[in-house]
Specification:
Number of helices: 4
CATH architecture: 3-Layer(aba) Sandwich
Number of strands: 5
Strand order of the largest sheet: 3-2-1-4-5
Keywords: Oxidoreductase
GO molecular function, one term: oxidoreductase activity
Protein name: Short-chain dehydrogenase/reductase
Strand content: 15-25%
CATH superfamily: NAD(P)-binding Rossmann-like Domain
Number of domains: 1
InterPro entries: NAD(P)-bd_dom_sf (IPR036291), SDR_fam (IPR002347)
CATH class: Alpha Beta
Shape: globular
EC number: 1.-.-.-
């Protein structure tokens, strides 16, 4: 693995929490850091903040909404057109918890259960689309939370009612 000062690193969900902290640490070590977020105003603010606190100007921000697969595809195209290589991809975007009501099923812009779309489908799509610029020997790191519910492979769309989970109520 090359030194971090020579690496290009993409971190999704980099405008808050673990993603932001990770971006700051890599920027302090001189890496080229590509930040991702879904709120352009917040992303621009975090970009400037990290540049200022780390004295690293080799940082860029990319906007994209992981609840929309077309937005994720556009995001990958923007990254590919701006960078010729990736040495580390950190898939950090994720949403937890459930809908406000146990009777409510949240749907992504593409019609998938929202958590399934954001925490899995969008990350797989982004990774696949970025493969042409992911260097041999690169690292792909997927962040997941222990707080997430286990996957019911017999109900991937999360349409059934199950004890202790948040699924759609079926009309009888």
């Amino acid at each position: 693995m090359k030194p971090l000062s020579d690496a290009t690193i993409l971190i999704t969900g980099a405008t808050d929490g673990l993603g932001k902290m990770t971006a700051e640490r890599f920027a302090k070590q001189g890496a080229r850091v590509l930040l991702h977020g879904r709120n352009k105003e917040k992303g621009t603010q975090v970009l400037e903040e990290i540049k200022q606190t780390t004295n690293n100007q080799n940082i860029a921000y990319f906007n994209g909404d992981f609840s929309s697969l077309s937005s994720v595809a556009e995001l990958s195209e923007q990254i590919i057109s701006n960078d010729e290589r990736l040495d580390i991809l950190i898939n950090n975007v994720g949403i937890g918890g459930g809908p406000r009501s146990k009777d409510e099923r949240e749907i992504s812009q593409d019609g998938f259960e929202l958590r399934w779309a954001v925490n899995y489908l969008a990350q797989v799509l982004l990774t696949k689309k970025l493969l042409p610029i992911i260097n041999e020997g690169a690292r792909i790191i997927n962040i997941a939370s222990v707080g997430q519910s286990p996957i019911d492979f017999d109900d991937l769309k999360m349409e059934k009612i199950m004890m202790g989970t948040w699924h759609t109520l079926e009309a009888n």
